[in-house]
Write a structure and sequence with these properties.
The protein has about 110 residues and is mostly beta strands. It is built from no helices and 8 strands.
């Protein structure tokens, strides 16, 4: 899977959509060239866990997001993120883009 760098307006917030969790074995971070902010917003009634897929494709925990809460962070365009529910079921994989990424988990 490849990513491309594109130039967005600095004020634009980009809604990110998940790809299927079954793709996780083939996913990994590729580089750290293009920094980009992302907001994880938990709209669920239960907590979610946020995981970064590192350069070997292994999960690295970035913590828990409580119901109706958000986690703001800086990441990179080629860094995939996995979100799991309170039963440890994967809800999908999100890929940041150039721009202020918004991940709504419902």
């Amino acid at each position: 899977m490849t990513w491309s760098h594109r130039n967005n307006n600095d004020d634009e917030q980009v809604l990110l959509y998940p790809i299927h969790a079954g793709n996780e074995p083939d996913m990994r971070s590729l580089n750290s060239k293009y920094p980009t902010p992302v907001s994880f917003i938990n709209l669920r009634s239960t907590p979610i866990q946020v995981w970064w897929l590192n350069f070997e494709g292994k999960r690295v925990s970035y913590g828990t997001v409580k119901p109706n809460s958000r986690l703001e962070m800086n990441t990179y365009e080629t860094h995939p993120w996995v979100i799991v529910d309170s039963s440890n079921q994967s809800l999908g994989i999100w890929l940041p883009v150039d721009g202020k990424g918004l991940i709504l988990v419902s």
